[in-house]
Amino acid sequence: MDLMSPAHVVLRRLDEALLDALAATAAADADPREVMPTAGEDGPGWTAARREAFVRFHRSRSLGADPAETVYAVLVTEPDQDGRPRETVAGAARLAPAPEPGEVEAGLWLGRSHRGRGVGTAVLALLLDEARAAGATGLIARTDAAGAASRRLLAAAGAGLETGGDGTVTARLPLTDRRRPA
C-alpha cells in the first residue's frame, strides 16, 4: 500500500460537477452510513433513493444560497495504469460553524480504497489551514467509539478526546499560528 504525499491531496470546494463525482465515489467505495445521515432505509448498500438523498443532502447543506457548511471534495492525484497523473475524488471534508464562538466543526470521510494511506492526515492539515485562514480559534470533530482511525488521526494532530455516555467521541483541537499539525 503506497502512502500519499500531502502534495498529492487537495481540497476543492464542492460544486455540481464535483457533487456528481462525489456521489459516484460514495456509491462505489463507501457504505452509505459512513457518508450521510440515514435516509430512512435500514438495509445495507446503496439504492437509487439513497444516492438521491446523498445529492439532495449536499445541495441543501453546501450548495444553496445560504450554505450551512463548506464542503470540499478530497482530490487525490495518482498515476493511472499508463503512469500518467490522474485526479480522482477520494471523499469529502467539511467545515461548519460550531456552537462555541470561534470554533468550527470538521468532518471527513474517505472511500475505502483511499484509507490507511496518509490521505486523512493530509486532509486534516488542509482543513486546519482553512479553519485558521477563516479566523477560527478551535476545531472540533465528532466520531463514535468504533472510529479508531479517526481517533488516532485527531490525537496525532494534538486533539484532546472526550468520550460521552452515548459513545460519541468529541475531539477538540485549539488552533495556533502553526500551519501544520505536529
Question: How would the blueprint of this fold be written?
Answer:
Blueprint: E1 9-13, H1 16-29, H2 32-35, H3 48-63, E2 70-79, E3 85-97, E4 103-110, H4 119-133, E5 138-144, H5 148-156, E6 160-163, E7 168-174
Parallel strand pairs: 4-5
Antiparallel strand pairs: 1-2, 2-3, 3-4, 5-7, 6-7
Helix pairs in contact: 1-3
Q: What would you say this structure looks like, in words?
A:
With 182 residues, this protein is α+β, with helices and mostly antiparallel strands. 32% of the residues lie in helices and 30% in strands. It is built from five helices and seven strands. It has a seven-stranded mixed β-sheet with strand order 1-2-3-4-5-7-6, with helices on both faces. The chain is globular.
Distance between the termini: 24 Å
Q: How would you classify the helix and strand content by structural class? A: alpha+beta
Percentage of residues in DSSP E strands: 25-35%
Shape: globular
The side-by-side strand order for the widest beta sheet comes to: 1-2-3-4-5-7-6
* H and E string: EHHHEEEHEHEE
Helix content: 25-40%
Number of strands: 7
Task: Provide key terms for this protein.
seven-stranded mixed β-sheet, 7 strands, 182 residues
